[in-house]
Design brief:
seven-stranded parallel beta sheet, alpha/beta, 22% strand, homotetramer, 13 helices, 343 residues
């Protein structure tokens, strides 16, 4: 009999996986957790892999084996694996009766074609895709509660969608106008692969734009804001810091609005949502405010005409942008308070 | 008899002033330079003030006195002083026959009203203002050559104007469309004043937007691109690094264009301008490429429709954004090669 | 009737105070906490003071008043106040029946003279001083359990004392030999005061030594290692990062030793002490391993002769070096597990 | 006929090589320079390889070929190549009549055995080794002037040797006492190889010791200070910044000395040496003071007994620690002023 409070975590070598381990290890509802890696390099427990966790994280580490997971009592699996690995593992875990939170991009899109065209990878299994909920609990809590599979969103996408959704839902964006999303991320968002441009000497005192008009998080933003592709421009930049995304978003409103009405719209839209912190007009969130948290902080500035709006949306790319949100989704799947282990 | 190669430098306590000293000390055409400070704290030479310059910069340092400057043979004065101090000093130095390069905002605008409304300070002397050239040599070399006074531009403004001017001049921007300038600067651009948010612990691993819809460089951009205020959105952010500005600029083109035609436009517009480095489509400049230089690097990306253009413009806020450009202006005023001491 | 689980926290404007609040807010044994500040700037709760804590920390904030504290049921007070303020407040709080954990230097020394000569401040009250335990629980747990007042140690001192104490206690240091402690700290250790050398542009890409032969943590190290002043050299440096102290300590051993025997000495000395993590010979702790934790990590390297030993000791200056250790002391005072709220 | 002012530079892909190119490109005495790389990736000039240098550095880049170098008129070769490559190239270039400045470790030691035992590589050619001068011009100017081959020292070694040499030469170090050299370097000193621990996320906000008792610069320090191996402890640490080495050096003096006498010793020892900047007692050099320079700044603090001395020595590991010193050596070899192109 599967117990959803017994969890299997696959792939903790990257930064998101490590952060996931860090949060799960303090999660009060979890009864047992086992970590699986394709290559354990002889390590028996997490503390041997991550010196940061020694003494607080002696959870068992095992070579990855589908059998090992499915023959355990684990009821929930977290996949912090590459897209292809997730595409392969998720259907098998679902078939064995586990529920899955997948941090990869494999199951994030309504249509498998979107995935294949943006990721240049084989289409994920269609039947599995149809069981997936898109994992932003502030927008899709009902689906997440019951979904066998939750596709945890991209970090940039989470930051932009949460900022734009209230305006989009209430049709406050001027029809046909441009929406510009200028996003900046810390280096942990680029992953742990060895890359020249991620070496300290190359990024220190540096800043750059990258993947203009081609970033893979674009289709998530289009699907979940409903803004037409021809109107949305999304750009990404690399900051010389470890953690955090700040998105500056430029919107033309449908009619002149007041700062109060904008604030009221957001407060009402996100009423009761503890992981969203709204800032009053005249003050703006900063990256440090959200580092090492699961919050998404949203602020704004309005020009005197009341027509041009700048939104500022901040989150920790490893927190609300990845591992934190994965646990928030897990909490919804288990009927727990959504901020459990996240404050 | 005044000699333009004998220079007086006023106010070298800030970061721009220090950088100016660093460049002037290696300038081959300068025959003598004297540095003036309101408060010398007993220092007799620059090396006592700046340990970085010991051994290479034992230029004399004197208490600021208008008499001392005007009774010397100095023919050129650089003012790295606050707006009010520049507003007061410049007319007196001009009256005494010196030519002036002013790094403050006091004489940057065609109308004194623009200055007073954006800076909340008394209007600068009108007669002096009428003698001022706006100091971007790539655009106004002729005026600069003969102007008694050159108003050295704002750092953000230089970065944005140089990127937009070719499009604006050739009317390639779609009429009525939004132009979004999302600019990011290192901390030296914020000056040397003691401020909580500029303390190491506050800015390290942080990033934030500031002065949205109210930054003082806005009117410079409006004047020198000709883009109507209602179309231009200019935002500024603070990066956790010391030097550099990167501006990401979003433009809707008047008609579909090719990457080649855009590159050709910029190459032709800036032909012969050594301080502008253009990047081919598909590659983008980064802050490290321009740190400690006087270059402004400009690159771009075009979406498949050929209508949406993203420009990336980089410079060193203390180089081409301040002290470097001041020396470039000085070179034009003296008929020297514009890159003298700047490579 | 005072309840030790009701706590009053005085002075949370500095970095240690903020970190203390962050830890106390998640402490499961605390039944209520009230925060006191000399100047609240109209803020009613911690979240208004620290945007980082909004939503997770709406603990009440009150203007500092001895009456307010003593007329409440609070049984424990934390003082994150300047030395002089602690010297004044602690005796009054003790008199009113509270127990006190003081993060200042006022009560750290056996003799009031040591304090006055190193801090150039009036002597703390002698009767109060005699009730103080020095708050390193790995060394003085018994005293801390029952002490009315615990003097929380200096950050550098903690790092050095924990590394040297086993060798000192077992007389493994060659008599008369030099012990060199070369310590490096992040900028939060220098406090939150506005200082030129702590501005971002000054510390970024910089590194420096400071306070050589005059750092105030020196007498703590002398008292708690027992090494004679003539043998101990202690130096401090400022790192361009926010949090953490790494001390490199050079010892000449009394006789040739093996790495195994050294490791065994430390394992036995710190047996059962969960907040000390010992590293095997051949591996060394790094600052990132201890950032945002309450651990002190200790490693070493031994030269082939077995006589020269280099110890490397790391901790987070706001964690085990300040607020974390304060809570560890509190846990001992209340008979809780020492790592409560610290993992 | 070879012309020493025509230079061949081999291997500019690393950080030292890049810095060397940057300095040579502004060197007024150099009549031509050609850059050679084992793999040019199709680049024809330096600016294609290093975007930083575009517009200022269109020096030719060629595939490495001994023939190409020896058949040119080049009279001087700089080798910024790995130890093995230098060991192979240097004898051949010398045989062809060029003089060589080698930045590798291959020819730094009096005995080939020292090299083989510390580097685990085959011994360099003995005849070549006997023609090599050790390239610290402040100590060995005479040999450097006439040597066919100059072995450019290690960065750490330069910093330590320059600080200790005056004391060692005048026998002011207490016989038999420990000398501790605690050295900290920025990341460019670790080279450009892709390494996990040099990735931004791993080094940002981190600090660590490495290679204790085993760093390859140890034997250089022993040879050129004359301090016995049993007395010298040399440790190295990695700083989260790009450029610079700061060494903190602990010495026990032979007898009580005054600060004045120490300052006088250093001033006299380094009289006329423009690249050494001495600091008065009571002030200390910092890394920022020497970044992007060829200076070695030396300061000190003396304890009240006059017996314990702490030296602080700073330089830029790519400047005086590598490429700058290489050019300083070149200047001596050509009979130029030693600071040519270095200020």
């Amino acid at each position: 009999m599967r117990d959803p409070r017994q969890v299997a975590v696959v792939g903790v070598t990257g930064y998101s996986g490590f952060e996931l381990a860090r949060i799960l290890l303090r999660h009060p509802a979890i009864q047992s957790s086992v970590y699986y890696l394709r290559e354990t390099h002889g390590a028996q427990c997490l503390g041997q892999l991550f010196p940061h966790l020694r003494g607080s994280a002696d959870a068992p580490l095992r070579p990855l084996s589908l059998d090992a997971i499915t023959s355990s009592a684990a009821g929930t699996a977290f996949l912090a694996t590459p897209h292809e690995a997730s595409a392969e593992l998720a259907p098998q875990l679902l078939a064995a009766g586990l529920r899955v939170v997948d941090l990869s991009g494999a199951f994030r899109f309504r249509s498998a074609d979107t995935f294949t065209s943006w990721y240049q990878l084989p289409a994920p299994d269609a039947a599995t895709l149809s069981q997936a909920a898109y994992g932003i609990p502030e927008l899709y809590a009902e689906q997440i509660k019951s979904a066998p599979l939750v596709a945890n969103p991209g970090c940039y996408a989470t930051s932009v969608i949460l900022a734009l959704r209230p305006l989009a839902a209430f049709l406050w964006i001027a029809p046909g106008s441009s929406v510009v999303c200028d996003c900046k991320s810390g280096a942990s968002g680029a992953g742990k692969e060895l890359r020249r441009d991620l070496q300290f000497v190359e990024l220190d005192e540096n800043f750059k734009a990258y993947n203009l008009f081609s970033h893979r998080h674009t289709p998530e933003i289009l699907e979940h804001t409903g803004i037409p592709e021809s109107q949305l421009t999304f750009s990404t930049h690399l900051l010389p810091l470890a953690r955090g995304i700040l998105s500056t978003i430029y919107v033309t409103l449908d009619q002149p609005r007041t700062a109060d009405s904008i604030e009221a719209l957001y407060r009402s839209f996100y009423a009761g949502r503890r992981m969203i912190r709204l800032w009053r007009a005249g003050s703006l969130p900063e990256l440090q405010h959200v580092a090492h948290t699961n919050f998404c902080d949203i602020g704004f500035a309005l020009d005197p005409s009341g027509r041009r709006l700048i939104l500022v949306s901040c989150l920790d790319n490893l927190g609300k942008g990845a591992a934190g949100q994965a646990v928030q989704n897990f909490n919804h799947m288990l009927g727990l308070e959504e901020h459990t282990a996240l404050q």
